[in-house]
Amino acid sequence: RSAQKIQSRTQKSQEKMKGVVIISVMVVLAMVQFMVKPGEAISCGQVDASLAPCVPYLTGGGNPAPACCDGVKNIKEMASTTVDRRATCNCVKEAANRYSNLKDDAAQALPAKCGVQMNIPISRSTNCDIVN
Question: Which CATH number is correct for 44-114, 1.10.110.10, 1.10.20.10, 3.40.1280.10, 3.40.50.740?
Answer without folding.
Answer: 1.10.110.10
